[in-house]
Amino acid sequence: GDATAFGFTVEWHDKQADLIREYQVTVFQPSKGSLEVAMFDVKTARSFLKRSEMPNLQLRDFRIGGVVTIHSRQLKVVGYKDARTEQALGVHHSGVCVLTVPSMFMQVGQLMERMETAGLRLARMRLVNCGGPVFAMQISGDNVENKWRSIQASLEPGCVQQIDNSELESYFDRSRFPCTAAFDNCSLCVVRPHAVREGGVGLVLKEIMASGLEVSAAEMLHLDRAHAMEFLEVYKGVLPYYADLVDGFCAGPLVALEVRSQTGVCEKLRDLCGPHDVDMARYLRPQSFRAKLGKDNAQNGVHSTDLEDDGEREVSYIFNTLCK
Q: CA 20 to 30 Å from 122, out of 90, 95, 204, 261?
């Protein structure tokens, strides 16, 4: 057919058997339309999944060390299957690693918006304290080096430095750079995986900071299904689309933010997010996050803590329990 094929080796942790199972995944990129994926079980030498459409996946999701979700299974991408795939995607996937300086902190939302507008996406990101608040980021996408160069040329000199992969790694070492969350007077904001993929992180950071709220911790993480279910348990039996909510929450990396204010932080953040119902948000609050980033009620762009009393518990679950 009229599609380019790319090959990857992936691993799946079978929790029942406590085994790592290896598969070969072939990704077909048609000239238009969704990606298609086929899977082959290496050990049994059998087809595991016939070629089928995966509208939620993009080629950039298949970076080495990344995680892709196929039929609710989270698969770790461990290698390229052939030299052609590596040549075609290696540069595209390694991305550019950058570090913002503390004085740039309040402008990081705008910087991310510019990256996202240029078609670049965050592959990894966290906020650390290194002489002040610093964002460590890995950015990926087509033609990432050139696009990043032109973005950097338009910035104040020295406000963002490009570093190599191994140096970036040290900022993700929690023993050296512990999580910056304060766990008090806080609310949790989560940019859902679909909105991360569609380039909505910059908007959320920019608007939260502009509103006078403080962003005191930020982590990008990929939840497994069990953790997504545990986190969203309060909605079980309450929202008819609970299952879709869980699917969406673990479909790819999300961005979690601890947002703080001396008073009423949950209400202030909820106000920025807008109504849960996306149609209602578009009608009543067209400037809200859900109006701008929401697709439907299960993929409504962002999660924010509903009740003031739950802020610390939700922040602690993400930044303390999961970000170990």
A: 261
d(CA 318, CA 324): 9
Q: How far apart are CA 274 and CA 102, in angstroms?
A: 30
Contacts of 268 (CB under 8 A, 6+ apart): 211, 213, 261
Tokens of 238: 């309450």
**283/321 Cα distance (integer angstroms):** 37
How many CA atoms, within 13 angstroms, populate the side-chain half-sphere of residue 319? 30
**pTM, to two decimals:** 0.87
Q: Is the pLDDT of residue 1 over 80?
A: no
What's the CA gap between 269 and 190, in Å, rounded? 11
Looking at residue 167, its amino acid is E
CA distance 155 to 194: 28
Nearest partner of 63 among 145, 6, 135, 22, judged by Cα: 6
Q: Which two tokens stand for residue 60?
A: 């950039």
Residue 5 half-sphere exposure toward CB, CA atoms < 13 A: 11
First to last CA, the chain: 45
- Spatial neighbors of 248 by CB under 8 A, at least 6 apart, are 192, 193, 194, 298, 299
* Beta partners for residue 39, in sequence order: 25, 49
Q: State the amino acid at position 29 in one-letter form.
A: Q
The residues that bridge with 254 in the sheet, in sequence order, are 221
Give the residues across from 2 on adjacent strands.
none
> Are 23 and 41 contacting, i.e. CB atoms less than 8 angstroms apart?
yes
CB 273 within 8 A of CB 189: yes
Res. 146: pLDDT tops 70: yes
What's the rounded mean pLDDT across residues 177-196? 97
What is the predicted pLDDT for the residue at 36?
95
Q: How confident is the model at residue 94, as a pLDDT?
A: 66
User: Whole-angstrom Cα distance, residue 218 to residue 243?
Assistant: 26
